[in-house]
Amino acid sequence: MSKIVYQLNTDPLLSPRFSQVVPVTSLQNSKRKFAFGFYFEKRAGLTFRQLAEKYALYLQEVYFPWPGLLSAREISGDPAPLRKRVIDDMRFCRSKGLKLDLLVNATCYGDKAVTAAQREDFYANLNEMEKAGILPEIITTTSPYIAVIAKKLHPNIDCRASVNMRLNSTIAMEYVADEFDSYYICRDLQRDLPTVKMFAEWGKKNGKKICMLANSGCLRLCPWQTFHETLLAHDFPHIFNEMKALDLPPTLCVGIVQSKQYEEILRASWIRPEDLHQYEPYVSVFKLSTREADRPDLILKAYTSGTHDGDLLRILDPGFSFFVRPYIFDNKAFPKEWSEGKIAGNCASNCTHCGKCAEVLKLIYKRDPELPDVSNYSLAPSKPLVIPGC
Hints:
By secondary structure, the chain is of the alpha/beta class. The chain is built from 14 helices and twelve strands. The chain has helices at residues 48-54, 79-95, 116-131, 144-153, 170-175, 193-206, 225-232, 240-245, 252-258, 263-266, 296-305, 321-324, 343-346, 356-364; strands at residues 4-8, 21-25, 34-37, 59-64, 99-104, 138-141, 158-161, 182-184, 209-213, 285-288, 327-329, 365-367. Strands 3-4-5-6-7-8-9-10 form an eight-stranded parallel barrel, surrounded by four helices. Strand 6 (138-141), helix 4 (144-153) and strand 7 (158-161) form a beta-alpha-beta unit. The longest helix is centred in the N-terminal third of the chain and has 17 residues, at 79-95. The chain starts with a strand and ends in a 23-residue tail after the last strand.
């Protein structure tokens, strides 16, 4: 267990009235390297707090939305009771030594994107969090404007570039070095270990942290991604009838999986738990997409233990397991040649359809004896698939 020490909040811009003793965890030689996402409703019978407590020794951060502030996903309902839930659970996480990461990572802010009204609303929400004792240590955002105004009010906050910014080169990171302290690297490149190493070396030289999203189920280099993210910012479910009328899938990934092009799942950006150790020298935080996953407990168990005996699709987000049933992608059946730097790593930029993924698919695509072979598995799930980790 890492040693917990305490320090008084000494930020000169914070009111002494709300200064407090907060836990600060030393991460050297620690298991604490993961971030996972807050959720409101129980998943697999477990509350968010139950999972946070169970895996606290492995968690460095928890990322959360604030009802009333735009993030990558719309939050419906009365903000007041929802905020109370967030406050109570974030206080609990802080008591366990977790850092708090506020999501302000919308793709679309509409006509309020850079306005005095946006600034004042953002400051009012930060002040409310401060009074509640949950002023975040980190703000993850897609907006350089949000990063700048956050720093003006609270210089000690770590402003982090969202994975949705798709930072795919050190040049891109240089462009926003004045606004951001840490970066989620572009997931489309993260299977390429030499590139990740290059990002890490640049980060060390420039005093920046490199982070990555480990279990994204998104298609790599998806041309629909911006369109999909924009839908998420504007009440995604309403588009289904219109897309159906045009004989279009609601998203590109759903259309590809429904047509059984399963090799495309293998060509995505996720990293198996068994291969994550190769990234530890270069990555400060491994983000796990759990906010919309139906089994966040499986995801945390797999990645904190470094192994998963079961369906790979159950630990990705989105995982598409519903569409593949009654078959699974047997995670333990991957060949040794799969690991990053070999089959997966060599396909980090462009697919030449060499046939290797087809051979891997033959090994891992198996009938699940625990699932009945029924026809209604071809029906769409009850809720739309979402971009993971946003």
